[in-house]
Every structure is written in structure tokens, then in C-alpha cells.
């Protein structure tokens, strides 16, 4: 069976919390497509580590706190946001729903949520913009020719995307063993719509004795010079996605990058790298308090959002859960997912005595040291 079940037009009664979309997606997505979306690269050590890091982090609740004036609003890039939960860039969403990213954009707009459209979206950035709210960001992959990269940037600017998110952690694209074993191949109808007019440059040929990795793929990979070039091409804030090392983070900040996404691509970039949540405190310490930091990889609940904010993120991105909600109930499912996540976050804030996002900090995280005082 290689076809998806049609998305529902009502929220299924089985959905009681955000993570339920993950469980229900298996009833809507064809098995090979589910394997492609759900899988990580290699042996999925990092995919597992992402979840383990959240599970090993506990929220430390407080009693009798007055949070009746509470809210989740905050400022990011000079704008006021209703809440800190954005939708991550996810390629080829037409795998999950015939309308793909258009439904995602509608779900985000209905809930005042930011969303990031992938370079590899199944629908063009112009088509999606028509259905999107104001907080639409564009995720950029460097193309093999700079003129194509520049064209993408200019198209995103013209279509009203407000931030460029440059993803740098997938210079080498590693296949998912899970997807391979499930027999997944990209259906002919699912295409990277934004790239239709940029013919793929011929791959670099390597000489005998040369490495496919070093002299092949990496010889064409983006460099610091490409990042500097990009920063000079656009008036939009540029955010770099895929940062896991504090020294890279600091170097990006000094270069003029407007913010970072601490991310291991949901365990899809290189197997064996740390969980995003695990490296977040070190990156926050490196870049200082006032520098925009987002985090993704492994978030499945509003509790996870709370933990990420407590350990240093200003906002988070949601990857797979959005695609699962899209497959289950289209824009309605995406909107419902975002509402659930926001409410789950609010519950954690209230129970931890945090009326605003600014109140959330490392003190709300319990760490088992044997000498807990909390004072
Ligand atoms: C099917 C799939 C496709 C993705 N495509 C992209 C992409 O085109 N660009 C990108 O920057 N990240 C991409 N990502 C990574 C997500 O933006 C995000 O970092 C990751 O999914 C977060 O982890 P989570 O799925 O556990 O929330 C993709 C992830 C998945 C699962």
C-alpha cells in the first residue's frame, strides 16, 4: 500500500494531546512515507538522544503562585509574537497532504504562529505566501550556483518573507536507513517546486584516488565566505539553522548573523551528534543573554517547549509533529496541534510559577545532584 489515507475534515476524537498526532499519523501516512518522515539518519542514535534529553529534564513546580495575569507573548526580531512556537522547515510536505505547505501556512496563520517554508517545499514560495500570515520565514539551502541562491533570496523578499533561515548542517545528505529499508522512493509527483527553474549543476567529478567526500561533496559545500556573501545580499535578518557548537555560534554572531537555531535536523544530519537540548546551555552561555536563539529536534509537547525555554531558547521550532498533524487533518490539524502545544506550555508555566516567558529560566529545571536546595 503506497497511498495515504485522505486527511479528515474534523479533529479525530483520539487526539487528546499534541503527541497523539505522532501516534495517529501511522493510520494516515503510507508506511514508506512515514518511514521517510519519522526516520533519522544512520542508526538513529541522535534521534533517540533528542527524546532522551527531554525525558531526562524535569520541571520543578511551585505552589500558590499568582499567574492570573500570565501570557505567552514575547518580542523577537523587533516584533511582538503571541507565543514562541514556530513551525520548522520541512521538505516535500505534499508527501503528507495534497496541498502540502499551503495547508501548513493556513494552520499557522489561524493560530498567530510563525512558520518557516523549506527551499524544498512541494509548493512554490509565491503560492504559499498567498495563504500565509505575516510571520512567514523562508529557509534557504545554498544552491550550487550563486545566481540561483540569489534568485531564491530575492523571490522570498518579494513574497514578503521576513527572515531567512539558512540551514548549514546538511552539506552531506545522509540517507535514512529506515526509509531505505521501507522501500521509500520520492514519488514522481512530489517535487521541490521552488527549484523548478534552476537546472541541477553537474556533480563535481573526482580523480582516481580522490575522496568522494572531501574532493567531491565538500568541495562544493557552503563556506564562511558564502555566508558573508549572503549577508551582503539581503536586507532580511539571516538566522543560521543547524548550530551545535558554541564556537560556531559565537563566530556566527560576530559575523552579523541575526540569530541561530540550535538543531541537529531532528536527528537527520549526522548520527552520533549530541541532542540539541544538551548543547543549548553552552550555546546560550557563549552568545550571551540577548542574542536570539531558537531550538528544535525532539519537541513533542508543550512541556518540552517549556524545558527548551528554561535552558536558554527564546522560541522553538516544531518539525515532524506538524507533518503528522497535516496528514491527519490538514490545516485544521496543524492549527489544532499549535493550540494544544501552546496550552500545554501554558499549563507548565502556570505550575512552575511563570506568568511570562521572561520568568522561565534554569531555576525551573530540577537536576538530581543529591544536594538539592533550590535556594
Ligand atoms: C521529513 C523532514 C524534512 C525536513 N526538511 C528540512 C528542510 O527542507 N530544511 C531544513 O532546514 N530542515 C528540514 N528538516 C528538519 C526540521 O526543520 C527540524 O530541524 C526537525 O524536524 C526538528 O526535529 P523534530 O522533527 O523532532 O521536531 C526536515 C525534517 C523532516 C522530518
Keywords:
12 strands, binds flavin mononucleotide, alpha/beta, 375 residues, two-stranded antiparallel ribbon, TIM Barrel
How would you portray this structure in words?
The chain has one domain (20-194, 213-364): Alpha-Beta Barrel (TIM Barrel), CATH 3.20.20. The protein is an alpha/beta fold. The strands form 3 sheets. It has an 8-stranded parallel beta sheet with strand order 4-11-10-9-8-7-6-5. The model has no long low-confidence stretch (mean pLDDT 95). The protein has helices spanning 20-25, 31-38, 45-55, 101-110, 125-131, 146-158, 177-181, 212-217, 224-233, 246-255, 276-287, 302-310, 320-351; strands spanning 58-59, 74-76, 79-81, 85-87, 115-117, 136-140, 164-167, 238-243, 259-262, 293-295, 315-318, 365-366. It has 13 helices and 12 strands. Residues 37, 88-91, 118, 120, 139, 167, 241, 263, 265-266, 268, 296-299, 318-320 line the site of flavin mononucleotide (FMN).
Task: Quickly describe the structure.
This protein has 375 residues and is an alpha/beta fold. The protein has helices spanning 20-25, 31-38, 45-55, 101-110, 125-131, 146-158, 177-181, 212-217, 224-233, 246-255, 276-287, 302-310, 320-351, and strands at 58-59, 74-76, 79-81, 85-87, 115-117, 136-140, 164-167, 238-243, 259-262, 293-295, 315-318, 365-366. Helices cover 37% and strands 11% of the residues.
Ordered list of secondary-structure elements with their pairings:
Elements: H1 20-25, H2 31-38, H3 45-55, E1 58-59, E2 74-76, E3 79-81, E4 85-87, H4 101-110, E5 115-117, H5 125-131, E6 136-140, H6 146-158, E7 164-167, H7 177-181, H8 212-217, H9 224-233, E8 238-243, H10 246-255, E9 259-262, H11 276-287, E10 293-295, H12 302-310, E11 315-318, H13 320-351, E12 365-366
Parallel strand pairs: 4-11, 5-6, 6-7, 7-8, 8-9, 9-10, 10-11
Antiparallel strand pairs: 1-12, 2-3
Helix pairs in contact: 4-5, 4-13, 10-11, 12-13
